Protein backbone atom coordinates (compact mmCIF):
# COMPACT_ATOMS: atom_id res chain seq x y z
CA UNK A 1 0.00 0.00 0.00
CA UNK A 2 2.81 2.39 0.89
CA UNK A 3 4.52 1.64 -2.42
CA UNK A 4 1.34 2.48 -4.31
CA UNK A 5 0.95 5.76 -2.43
CA UNK A 6 4.56 6.65 -3.16
CA UNK A 7 4.05 5.87 -6.83
CA UNK A 8 0.93 8.02 -7.01
CA UNK A 9 2.69 10.94 -5.33
CA UNK A 10 5.55 10.50 -7.74
CA UNK A 11 3.18 10.75 -10.72
CA UNK A 12 1.37 13.71 -9.18
CA UNK A 13 4.64 15.61 -8.81
CA UNK A 14 6.52 14.29 -11.85
CA UNK A 15 3.96 15.00 -14.57
CA UNK A 16 3.41 18.69 -13.64
CA UNK A 17 7.17 19.16 -13.30
CA UNK A 18 7.78 17.81 -16.79
CA UNK A 19 4.94 19.96 -18.16
CA UNK A 20 6.34 23.10 -16.53
CA UNK A 21 9.80 22.25 -17.85
CA UNK A 22 8.52 22.11 -21.43
CA UNK A 23 6.45 25.26 -20.94
CA UNK A 24 9.54 27.10 -19.76
CA UNK A 25 11.60 25.86 -22.68
CA UNK A 26 8.84 26.66 -25.18
CA UNK A 27 8.51 30.26 -23.98
CA UNK A 28 11.94 31.27 -25.29
CA UNK A 29 10.85 32.88 -28.57
CA UNK A 30 7.60 34.29 -27.15
CA UNK A 31 9.48 36.09 -24.37
CA UNK A 32 11.71 37.75 -26.98
CA UNK A 33 8.91 38.84 -29.31
CA UNK A 34 10.10 36.62 -32.17
CA UNK A 35 7.55 34.96 -34.50
CA UNK A 36 7.70 31.22 -33.94
CA UNK A 37 6.09 27.94 -34.85
CA UNK A 38 3.92 26.63 -32.04
CA UNK A 39 5.64 23.54 -30.57
CA UNK A 40 4.11 20.30 -29.38
CA UNK A 41 5.42 18.22 -26.49
CA UNK A 42 7.87 16.49 -26.84
CA UNK A 43 8.75 16.98 -30.51
CA UNK A 44 8.85 20.75 -30.58
CA UNK A 45 8.17 22.33 -33.97
CA UNK A 46 9.51 19.40 -36.01
CA UNK A 47 6.56 17.05 -35.83
CA UNK A 48 7.31 13.34 -36.15
CA UNK A 49 4.63 12.83 -38.79
CA UNK A 50 6.38 15.14 -41.28
CA UNK A 51 9.79 15.01 -42.85
CA UNK A 52 12.27 17.77 -42.05
CA UNK A 53 12.02 19.03 -45.63
CA UNK A 54 8.23 19.34 -45.52
CA UNK A 55 8.39 21.02 -42.12
CA UNK A 56 10.99 23.58 -43.21
CA UNK A 57 8.90 24.27 -46.32
CA UNK A 58 5.94 24.98 -44.05
CA UNK A 59 8.06 27.41 -42.02
CA UNK A 60 8.93 29.40 -45.13
CA UNK A 61 5.31 29.54 -46.21
CA UNK A 62 4.32 31.02 -42.84
CA UNK A 63 7.17 33.54 -42.61
CA UNK A 64 6.53 37.21 -41.86
CA UNK A 65 8.56 40.40 -42.33
CA UNK A 66 10.88 39.21 -39.57
CA UNK A 67 14.21 37.91 -41.01
CA UNK A 68 13.82 34.49 -39.37
CA UNK A 69 11.34 32.15 -37.73
CA UNK A 70 11.87 30.68 -34.27
CA UNK A 71 11.43 26.92 -33.90
CA UNK A 72 12.08 24.20 -31.34
CA UNK A 73 13.95 20.95 -32.00
CA UNK A 74 12.67 18.89 -29.09
CA UNK A 75 13.50 21.40 -26.30
CA UNK A 76 16.26 23.31 -28.08
CA UNK A 77 15.40 26.71 -29.56
CA UNK A 78 16.63 27.23 -33.12
CA UNK A 79 16.35 29.66 -36.02
CA UNK A 80 15.13 29.11 -39.57
CA UNK A 81 16.46 31.94 -41.73
CA UNK A 82 13.83 33.24 -44.16
CA UNK A 83 15.42 36.49 -45.38
CA UNK A 84 18.15 36.56 -48.02
CA UNK A 85 20.16 39.37 -46.40
CA UNK A 86 20.00 37.61 -43.04
CA UNK A 87 21.21 34.39 -44.68
CA UNK A 88 24.16 36.29 -46.17
CA UNK A 89 24.98 37.66 -42.73
CA UNK A 90 25.07 34.15 -41.27
CA UNK A 91 26.96 32.50 -44.12
CA UNK A 92 29.34 35.30 -45.10
CA UNK A 93 29.64 38.51 -43.06
CA UNK A 94 29.23 36.93 -39.60
CA UNK A 95 30.37 33.44 -40.52
CA UNK A 96 32.92 33.27 -37.68
CA UNK A 97 30.03 33.19 -35.21
CA UNK A 98 28.12 30.45 -37.07
CA UNK A 99 30.71 27.81 -37.95
CA UNK A 100 29.06 24.91 -36.09
CA UNK A 101 26.69 22.59 -37.96
CA UNK A 102 25.14 21.12 -34.84
CA UNK A 103 25.42 17.58 -36.20
CA UNK A 104 26.00 14.62 -33.87
CA UNK A 105 29.45 13.01 -33.98
CA UNK A 106 30.76 10.03 -32.05
CA UNK A 107 34.35 9.22 -32.96
CA UNK A 108 34.61 6.33 -30.52
CA UNK A 109 31.71 4.30 -31.94
CA UNK A 110 31.40 5.98 -35.35
CA UNK A 111 34.82 7.18 -36.58
CA UNK A 112 33.46 8.08 -40.01
CA UNK A 113 31.22 10.72 -38.43
CA UNK A 114 34.21 12.94 -37.51
CA UNK A 115 34.38 14.58 -40.91
CA UNK A 116 34.61 18.18 -42.04
CA UNK A 117 30.84 18.53 -42.39
CA UNK A 118 30.01 17.30 -38.89
CA UNK A 119 32.77 18.70 -36.67
CA UNK A 120 32.36 21.92 -34.68
CA UNK A 121 34.54 24.55 -33.03
CA UNK A 122 38.32 24.52 -33.14
CA UNK A 123 38.54 21.00 -34.50
CA UNK A 124 36.50 22.08 -37.52
CA UNK A 125 38.71 25.14 -38.00
CA UNK A 126 41.88 23.04 -37.80
CA UNK A 127 40.61 20.46 -40.25
CA UNK A 128 39.31 23.10 -42.66
CA UNK A 129 42.72 24.82 -42.66
CA UNK A 130 44.36 21.52 -43.59
CA UNK A 131 41.85 20.44 -46.25
CA UNK A 132 41.26 23.76 -48.03
CA UNK A 133 44.34 23.33 -50.28
CA UNK A 134 42.94 20.02 -51.57
CA UNK A 135 40.03 21.77 -53.32
CA UNK A 136 41.90 24.35 -55.38
CA UNK A 137 41.27 24.57 -59.12
CA UNK A 138 44.74 23.18 -59.72
CA UNK A 139 43.99 20.04 -57.71
CA UNK A 140 40.69 19.60 -59.53
CA UNK A 141 42.50 19.89 -62.85
CA UNK A 142 44.72 16.95 -61.91
CA UNK A 143 41.66 14.79 -61.22
CA UNK A 144 39.90 15.72 -64.46
CA UNK A 145 41.45 12.94 -66.63
CA UNK A 146 40.18 10.38 -64.11
CA UNK A 147 36.66 11.77 -64.45
CA UNK A 148 36.92 11.55 -68.25
CA UNK A 149 37.94 7.89 -68.07
CA UNK A 150 34.82 7.05 -66.07
CA UNK A 151 32.70 9.19 -68.41
CA UNK A 152 33.92 7.12 -71.37
CA UNK A 153 32.88 3.93 -69.58
CA UNK A 154 29.51 5.56 -68.80
CA UNK A 155 28.94 6.29 -72.51
CA UNK A 156 29.80 2.71 -73.39
CA UNK A 157 27.47 1.23 -70.77
CA UNK A 158 24.68 3.62 -71.78
CA UNK A 159 25.09 2.61 -75.41
CA UNK A 160 24.78 -1.06 -74.49
CA UNK A 161 21.66 -0.40 -72.40
CA UNK A 162 19.99 1.55 -75.21
CA UNK A 163 20.34 -1.48 -77.46
CA UNK A 164 18.56 -3.82 -75.04
CA UNK A 165 16.15 -1.65 -73.01
CA UNK A 166 13.55 0.95 -73.92
CA UNK A 167 13.25 2.60 -70.51
CA UNK A 168 15.92 3.39 -67.93
CA UNK A 169 16.08 4.54 -64.34
CA UNK A 170 18.28 7.59 -64.93
CA UNK A 171 18.77 8.44 -61.25
CA UNK A 172 20.24 5.00 -60.51
CA UNK A 173 22.40 5.05 -63.64
CA UNK A 174 23.81 8.48 -62.78
CA UNK A 175 24.39 7.40 -59.16
CA UNK A 176 26.45 4.47 -60.45
CA UNK A 177 28.40 6.87 -62.65
CA UNK A 178 29.14 9.32 -59.84
CA UNK A 179 29.95 6.43 -57.49
CA UNK A 180 32.65 5.27 -59.92
CA UNK A 181 33.97 8.83 -60.30
CA UNK A 182 34.16 9.58 -56.60
CA UNK A 183 35.33 6.09 -55.71
CA UNK A 184 38.22 6.46 -58.12
CA UNK A 185 39.12 10.01 -57.03
CA UNK A 186 38.65 9.46 -53.30
CA UNK A 187 39.94 5.90 -52.97
CA UNK A 188 41.82 5.22 -56.20
CA UNK A 189 39.72 2.09 -56.67
CA UNK A 190 37.74 0.89 -59.68
CA UNK A 191 34.28 0.56 -58.12
CA UNK A 192 32.81 -0.97 -61.31
CA UNK A 193 29.25 -0.06 -60.33
CA UNK A 194 28.45 0.97 -63.91
CA UNK A 195 28.84 -2.65 -64.95
CA UNK A 196 27.54 -4.11 -61.69
CA UNK A 197 24.69 -2.18 -59.98
CA UNK A 198 25.26 -4.28 -56.86
CA UNK A 199 28.97 -3.50 -56.54
CA UNK A 200 30.04 -3.04 -52.91
CA UNK A 201 30.71 0.69 -53.15
CA UNK A 202 27.27 1.29 -54.60
CA UNK A 203 25.66 -1.12 -52.13
CA UNK A 204 27.10 0.48 -49.00
CA UNK A 205 26.79 4.05 -50.27
CA UNK A 206 23.12 3.48 -51.06
CA UNK A 207 22.53 1.82 -47.70
CA UNK A 208 23.98 4.78 -45.79
CA UNK A 209 21.82 7.28 -47.69
CA UNK A 210 18.57 5.32 -48.02
CA UNK A 211 18.53 3.28 -44.80
CA UNK A 212 19.27 5.49 -41.76
CA UNK A 213 20.53 3.54 -38.78
CA UNK A 214 17.85 5.14 -36.57
CA UNK A 215 14.43 6.73 -36.97
CA UNK A 216 13.74 10.46 -37.31
CA UNK A 217 13.10 10.98 -33.61
CA UNK A 218 16.35 9.29 -32.51
CA UNK A 219 18.35 11.23 -35.12
CA UNK A 220 16.96 14.50 -33.73
CA UNK A 221 17.68 13.27 -30.22
CA UNK A 222 21.34 12.79 -31.19
CA UNK A 223 21.68 16.44 -32.19
CA UNK A 224 19.92 17.78 -29.09
CA UNK A 225 21.45 15.46 -26.48
CA UNK A 226 24.83 14.42 -27.92
CA UNK A 227 26.44 13.56 -24.56
CA UNK A 228 23.63 11.21 -23.60
CA UNK A 229 23.71 9.54 -27.02
CA UNK A 230 27.47 9.05 -26.77
CA UNK A 231 26.99 7.37 -23.41
CA UNK A 232 24.47 5.08 -25.10
CA UNK A 233 27.02 4.38 -27.91
CA UNK A 234 24.60 5.53 -30.62
CA UNK A 235 26.00 5.74 -34.12
CA UNK A 236 24.65 7.33 -37.30
CA UNK A 237 26.55 4.90 -39.53
CA UNK A 238 25.68 1.23 -39.89
CA UNK A 239 28.37 -1.03 -38.44
CA UNK A 240 28.86 -2.92 -41.71
CA UNK A 241 29.18 0.36 -43.63
CA UNK A 242 31.87 1.54 -41.20
CA UNK A 243 33.68 -1.80 -41.42
CA UNK A 244 33.68 -1.73 -45.23
CA UNK A 245 34.89 1.84 -45.70
CA UNK A 246 37.47 1.72 -42.91
CA UNK A 247 38.81 -1.50 -44.39
CA UNK A 248 38.99 -0.06 -47.90
CA UNK A 249 40.83 3.06 -46.71
CA UNK A 250 43.25 1.03 -44.57
CA UNK A 251 44.11 -1.29 -47.47
CA UNK A 252 44.49 1.61 -49.92
CA UNK A 253 46.74 3.65 -47.64
CA UNK A 254 48.89 0.64 -46.74
CA UNK A 255 49.31 -0.41 -50.40
CA UNK A 256 50.24 3.07 -51.59
CA UNK A 257 52.70 3.70 -48.77
CA UNK A 258 54.34 0.29 -49.15
CA UNK A 259 54.77 0.66 -52.92
CA UNK A 260 55.36 4.43 -52.90
CA UNK A 261 52.46 5.01 -55.29
CA UNK A 262 51.53 8.61 -56.08
CA UNK A 263 48.32 9.58 -57.88
CA UNK A 264 46.74 12.95 -58.52
CA UNK A 265 43.62 12.14 -56.50
CA UNK A 266 42.02 13.06 -53.19
CA UNK A 267 43.42 10.03 -51.37
CA UNK A 268 46.95 11.00 -52.35
CA UNK A 269 46.44 14.45 -50.81
CA UNK A 270 45.03 12.95 -47.61
CA UNK A 271 48.01 10.62 -47.29
CA UNK A 272 50.34 13.60 -47.60
CA UNK A 273 48.44 15.34 -44.79
CA UNK A 274 48.66 12.18 -42.70
CA UNK A 275 52.43 11.80 -43.13
CA UNK A 276 53.65 15.39 -43.48
CA UNK A 277 50.92 17.69 -42.12
CA UNK A 278 51.07 19.56 -45.44
CA UNK A 279 50.64 19.04 -49.16
CA UNK A 280 53.56 19.00 -51.58
CA UNK A 281 53.86 22.33 -53.37
CA UNK A 282 51.98 24.40 -50.79
CA UNK A 283 53.70 27.69 -50.06
CA UNK A 284 52.32 28.11 -46.53
CA UNK A 285 53.73 24.95 -44.98
CA UNK A 286 55.29 26.92 -42.11
CA UNK A 287 51.99 28.35 -40.83
CA UNK A 288 48.77 26.68 -39.74
CA UNK A 289 49.35 23.24 -41.23
CA UNK A 290 52.47 22.50 -39.17
CA UNK A 291 51.00 23.99 -36.01
CA UNK A 292 47.87 21.87 -36.33
CA UNK A 293 49.79 18.64 -36.97
CA UNK A 294 49.19 15.55 -39.05
CA UNK A 295 45.92 13.84 -39.82
CA UNK A 296 45.23 10.65 -37.89
CA UNK A 297 44.17 7.57 -39.83
CA UNK A 298 40.60 7.91 -38.50
CA UNK A 299 40.45 11.56 -39.64
CA UNK A 300 41.76 10.56 -43.05
CA UNK A 301 39.11 7.84 -43.40
CA UNK A 302 36.31 10.19 -42.29
CA UNK A 303 37.26 12.82 -44.90
CA UNK A 304 37.44 10.22 -47.66
CA UNK A 305 34.03 8.91 -46.61
CA UNK A 306 32.28 12.30 -46.63
CA UNK A 307 33.97 13.16 -49.94
CA UNK A 308 32.52 9.95 -51.36
CA UNK A 309 29.02 10.54 -49.95
CA UNK A 310 28.87 14.19 -50.94
CA UNK A 311 30.12 13.39 -54.40
CA UNK A 312 27.96 10.52 -55.54
CA UNK A 313 24.58 11.42 -54.01
CA UNK A 314 24.38 15.20 -54.52
CA UNK A 315 25.98 15.04 -57.96
CA UNK A 316 23.68 12.30 -59.24
CA UNK A 317 20.59 14.13 -57.93
CA UNK A 318 21.72 17.39 -59.59
CA UNK A 319 22.39 15.63 -62.89
CA UNK A 320 19.00 13.91 -62.76
CA UNK A 321 17.14 17.20 -62.28
CA UNK A 322 19.27 18.81 -65.00
CA UNK A 323 18.45 16.10 -67.55
CA UNK A 324 14.76 16.31 -66.70
CA UNK A 325 14.65 20.09 -67.20
CA UNK A 326 16.54 19.76 -70.48
CA UNK A 327 14.08 17.11 -71.64
CA UNK A 328 11.02 19.31 -71.00
CA UNK A 329 12.64 22.54 -72.28
CA UNK A 330 13.77 21.78 -75.81
CA UNK A 331 14.92 25.33 -76.53
CA UNK A 332 17.30 25.29 -73.55
CA UNK A 333 18.54 21.84 -74.58
CA UNK A 334 19.29 23.09 -78.12
CA UNK A 335 21.15 26.14 -76.81
CA UNK A 336 23.13 23.94 -74.44
CA UNK A 337 24.06 21.52 -77.25
CA UNK A 338 25.11 24.39 -79.49
CA UNK A 339 27.50 25.76 -76.87
CA UNK A 340 29.03 22.32 -76.28
CA UNK A 341 29.60 21.75 -80.00
CA UNK A 342 31.05 25.25 -80.44
CA UNK A 343 33.53 24.86 -77.59
CA UNK A 344 34.54 21.32 -78.57
CA UNK A 345 35.19 22.51 -82.13
CA UNK A 346 37.63 25.05 -80.72
CA UNK A 347 39.49 22.25 -78.89
CA UNK A 348 39.47 19.79 -81.83
CA UNK A 349 36.71 17.68 -80.32
CA UNK A 350 38.56 17.06 -77.04
CA UNK A 351 36.83 17.70 -73.73
CA UNK A 352 39.63 19.27 -71.70
CA UNK A 353 39.51 21.04 -68.34
CA UNK A 354 39.88 24.38 -70.16
CA UNK A 355 37.09 23.50 -72.58
CA UNK A 356 34.74 22.62 -69.74
CA UNK A 357 35.40 25.98 -68.06
CA UNK A 358 34.36 27.78 -71.24
CA UNK A 359 30.91 26.17 -71.26
CA UNK A 360 29.30 28.98 -69.28
CA UNK A 361 25.70 28.31 -70.31
CA UNK A 362 26.01 24.64 -69.37
CA UNK A 363 27.43 25.68 -66.02
CA UNK A 364 24.49 28.05 -65.40
CA UNK A 365 22.05 25.24 -66.12
CA UNK A 366 23.71 22.86 -63.65
CA UNK A 367 24.09 25.50 -60.94
CA UNK A 368 20.43 26.46 -61.44
CA UNK A 369 19.38 23.05 -60.22
Automatic annotation (TrEMBL):
It is found in: Endoplasmic reticulum membrane; Microsome membrane. Pfam families: p450. It is a peripheral membrane protein. GO terms for cellular component: endoplasmic reticulum membrane. The keyword Cell inner membrane does not apply. Keywords: Endoplasmic reticulum, Heme, Iron, Membrane, Metal-binding, Microsome, Monooxygenase, Oxidoreductase, Transmembrane, Transmembrane helix. One of its GO terms (molecular function) is iron ion binding. The chain crosses the membrane at residues 6-22. CDD domains: CYP6-like. Its cofactor is heme. Belongs to the cytochrome P450 family. PANTHER family: CYTOCHROME P450 (PTHR24292), CYTOCHROME P450 6BS1 (PTHR24292:SF103). This is Cytochrome P450. The lineage of its organism: Eukaryota, Metazoa, Ecdysozoa, Arthropoda, Hexapoda.
Amino acid sequence: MEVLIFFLWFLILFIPTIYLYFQKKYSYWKDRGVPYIEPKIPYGSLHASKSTRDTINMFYKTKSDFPFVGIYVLTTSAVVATDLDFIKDVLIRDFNYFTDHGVYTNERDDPLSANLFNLDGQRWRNLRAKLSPTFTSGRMRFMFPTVLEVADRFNKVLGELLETQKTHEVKDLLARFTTDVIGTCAFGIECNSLKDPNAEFRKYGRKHIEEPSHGTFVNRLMNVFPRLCKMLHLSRTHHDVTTFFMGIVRETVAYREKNNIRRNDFMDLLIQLKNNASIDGDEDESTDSKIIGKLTFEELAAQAFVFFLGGFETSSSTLTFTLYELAVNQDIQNKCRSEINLVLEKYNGNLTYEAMNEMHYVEQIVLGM
